[in-house]
Specification:
By secondary structure, this protein is α/β, with parallel strands linked by helices. It contains 16 helices and 20 strands. The longest helix has 16 residues. Keywords: ATP-binding, Cell cycle, Cell division, Cell shape, Cell wall biogenesis/degradation, Cytoplasm, Ligase, Nucleotide-binding, Peptidoglycan synthesis.
C-alpha cells in the first residue's frame, strides 16, 4: 500500500519511519528544503523523498496521506489528493491507530507544553513506562516506530487535530481557548474553538475530559457539543465536583470521597496560569490511580520548561525573563499578570491577527517601556505607543536587550514575551529565546 507523507519536518519524518516499519511503500515530499538530520534519517531507512516542490507524480495510486500540521487543508496538492480518492490524516491519527498504549492528550491555547511535561514527570516518578511526545520534543509516530509505550502523554495543537478521524485519547485535557492562529481559521474564533474541541470528538463514556470551568469559550462550546466522556472541571475561582479547584490558597483534588489538598505555595510552578496546569496534570494522574504522595512530590519538585517565564539573570537589580514561548496575546497576559514589579516589555514578530485589547489594562498598570522586536512593528507602535512613556524598535535580540537594560532600573523586570511568531527574525521561538539569553549574559 502506498503511503505519501507531505512535509519533512519532525512530524513527517516520524510518520515516514512508522510507515516503513509497518510495511508501507513510503514516499515523502516537501515543498521546502529538508533539514540535514531528516534527510539522513530518510536515507538511512531507505525511504524515497523529494524536496523543493510537490511534483505530483504520486497522485495516482496513493491511498493514504499523512499531512504535516503546517500544511493547510485547502492547499491545492491536498485537495487534488482527496479528489483522487486518498485518505488524508494527521501524524497523530496515524500513530494512534498503531499503539496499544493509553493516551493522555493535552491541548489549549496556552499551557500545553508545561502540562504535558508535568504530567509526564508525575508518571515517570511513579515508575510507569511513559513518554512525552507530539507537539513537544519528538513526534508520536517517530517514537512509536522505535517501540510502543504503556502511556503516551501527547501535546497536540489545533493544526494536528484538524486532520484526525478516529483519534481517541483515554484522557483529553483542554486548558483554555483564546484568540490564536486565526489566520489559519478564516479569522473566525468559532472555527478555532471547533478545532480545539476535536480532541473530545471521539471520546466514549469510558474516557475522561478535563477542562477549565473558568473559560467562557470552553463552557459555551461544552453546552453545544455532545461529549460523552466523564467530565472533570478545574477552577481557580470556585469549588467543583469530580475535578480540582483552589480555595483559601489550597489546591484540592476532588475526584473521590477521599479528596486531598496541598498548599499552592508548595507548587513548583507559581502564577495563576500554572495552577491550572498543575490541577490538570494532577487530575489525569489520579485518574490513573497514581499515589497522592507521588502527585504531591511531583508538583513541588518539577522544574519549569525553557522559554516559558524562564529566569535568565539579575544584573544590577534588574531581572531578565525569557518568555519566548508566549507566541499569542493570552500567553503575554499571563506573563504580565505574574509580576508585581515594573516591566520593560519586549514584544513583536509575525502578528497572527492579534487583538491586543485584553492587554491594555495590564500595560497601563505595569509596563514602563516597550521594545518592539520585529521587521514590521507599526501595529504595535500605533497601539501601545500612547500607553507608555518609552517605546522603541529593535531588529536583533542584542539590540532589544541593550534597550531593555537602558530603560530599566533596579527592581524592574525586562520581559521577553513576544505575543507573536518568530519567523521574521528568528528560526523559531527557541532560537529567539536562546539569542535573548546570550544577549543578556553578554551585558
Amino acid at each position: 500500500m502506498k503511503l505519501l507523507v507531505l512535509g519533512g519536518g519532525e512530524s513527517g519524518a516520524g510518520a515516514a519511519m512508522l510507515g516503513k516499519k509497518l510495511g508501507y511503500d513510503v514516499f515523502l515530499s516537501d515543498r521546502g528544503v529538508l533539514k540535514e538530520k531528516y534527510k539522513n534519517v530518510l536515507i538511512k531507512a531507505g525511504i524515497k523523498w523529494e524536496e523543493g516542490a510537490h511534483s505530483g507524480d504520486f497522485l495516482q495510486g496513493t491511498e493514504l496521506v499523512i499531512k504535516s500540521p503546517g500544511i493547510p487543508s485547502e492547499t491545492a496538492i491536498v485537495l487534488d489528493l482527496k479528489k483522487a480518492g486518498a485518505e488524508v490524516i494527521s501524524e497523530i491519527e496515524f500513530a494512534a491507530r498503531h499503539t496499544k498504549g493509553k493516551i493522555i492528550a493535552i491541548t489549549g491555547t496556552n499551557g500545553k507544553t508545561t502540562t504535558t511535561l508535568l504530567t509526564h514527570h508525575m508518571f515517570a516518578k511513579a515508575g510507569k513506562d511513559v513518554i512525552a511526545a507530539g507537539n513537544v520534543g519528538k513526534s508520536f509516530a517517530g517514537l512509536l516506530a522505535e517501540r510502543d509505550r504503556d502511556i503516551w502523554v501527547l501535546e497536540v495543537s489545533s493544526f494536528q487535530l484538524d486532520d484526525i478521524v478516529s483519534f481517541k485519547p483515554d484522557v483529553a485535557i483542554l486548558l483554555n481557548i483564546t484568540s490564536d492562529h486565526l489566520d489559519r481559521y478564516g479569522y473566525e474564533m468559532q472555527n478555532y474553538a471547533d478545532a480545539k474541541f476535536a480532541i473530545a470528538r471521539n471520546l466514549t463514556e469510558a474516557d475522561h475530559f478535563i477542562y477549565s470551568d473558568d473559560d467562557e469559550v470552553i463552557l459555551k462550546n461544552l453546552k453545544e457539543k455532545n461529549i460523552k466522556a466523564q467530565l472533570h472541571p478545574i477552577s481557580t475561582y470556585h469549588p467543583v465536583e469530580n475535578g480540582a479547584y483552589i480555595t483559601e490558597n489550597e489546591l484540592i483534588i476532588n475526584l473521590t470521597n477521599n479528596p486531598y489538598k496541598m498548599s499552592i505555595h508548595d507548587l513548583a510552578l507559581q502564577g495563576r496560569h500554572n495552577v491550572y496546569n498543575s490541577m490538570a496534570a494532577s487530575v489525569s494522574a489520579r485518574l490513573f490511580d497514581l499515589r497522592k504522595e507521588v502527585v504531591r512530590d511531583s508538583l513541588s519538585d518539577y522544574e519549569n520548561i525553557e522559554h516559558r517565564l524562564e529566569f535568565v539573570a539579575e544584573i544590577h537589580g534588574i531581572k531578565f525573563i525569557n518568555d519566548s514561548k508566549a507566541t499569542n496575546v493570552n500567553g503575554v497576559w499571563y506573563a504580565l499578570e505574574n509580576y508585581s514589579e515594573k516591566i520593560v516589555w519586549i514584544v513583536g514578530g509575525v502578528d497572527k491577527g492579534n487583538d491586543y485589547s485584553i492587554l491594555e489594562a495590564l500595560v497601563r498598570e505595569k509596563v514602563k517601556a516597550i521594545i518592539c522586536l520585529g521587521t514590521d512593528n507599526k501595529k504595535l507602535m500605533d497601539y501601545f505607543g500612547p500607553m507608555v512613556e518609552n517605546i522603541a524598535e529593535a531588529h536583533t535580540a542584542t539590540e532589544a536587550v541593550n534597550l531593555g537594560y537602558a530603560f530599566a532600573k533596579k527592581n524592574d523586570v525586562v520581559l521577553l514575551s513576544p505575543a507573536c511568531a518568530s519567523f521574521d527574525l528568528f528560526e523559531n521561538y527557541e532560537d529567539r529565546g536562546q539569542q535573548f539569553k546570550r544577549a543578556v549574559r553578554a551585558l
